[in-house]
Amino acid sequence: MDTATETVTPLDEGFEWAIVEIFGHRKHAGRSREEERFGAKMLRIDVPTIGVNQAEGKPAEVGGVESWTTHWYGGASLFSYTLTDEATVMRINRPYVSASRYIAPPDRYDGDAAEDVSILDDVDDEPRF
């Protein structure tokens, strides 16, 4: 396996969107094509790195690719090759965004604290049986 990082480029001729499993252990989703390297035919798959909009905490939309990570594999190492579309590839590679924290609702008594205490003055201190 060989890995490199590239700048963002438009989808070139010969690329197709795919999900690739390697030896049944690793899974990559990206744009792929067959290339000759080192005198042998190899699979090239470019996996997108998608940025997160920190202000809203939501992943970038389709086309919000920051960079591509390239992997090359020999044909014998392929376990599964599934064709797909761009939206599916971007959804698979989007970064994890943790759930927002729960914020407790405001107190149900919005009035003055002295008024809230006066309500309790009417209650007897002795328990009733």
Features:
single chain, 129 residues, 13% helix, elongated
Describe the structure.
This protein is mainly beta. It has helices at residues 86-93, 113-121; strands spanning 2-6, 16-22, 26-37, 40-50, 52-53, 58-59, 65-74, 78-83.
Instruction: Report the biggest beta sheet as strand number plus sense, adding barrel if it closes.
Output: 6 strands, antiparallel
SS class: mainly beta
Strand arrangement across the biggest beta sheet = 1-7-4-3-2-8
Order of helices and strands: EEEEEEEEHH
- Name the helicity range: 10-25%
Strand proportion: 35-45%
Coarse shape = elongated
Number of strands: 8
**Helix segment tally:** 2
What's the quick description here?
With 129 residues, this protein is mainly β. The protein has two helices and eight strands.
Please render the helix and strand layout as text.
Blueprint lengths: L1 E5 L9 E7 L3 E12 L2 E11 L1 E2 L4 E2 L5 E10 L3 E6 L2 H8 L19 H9 L8
Antiparallel strand pairs: 1-7, 2-3, 2-8, 3-4, 4-7, 5-6
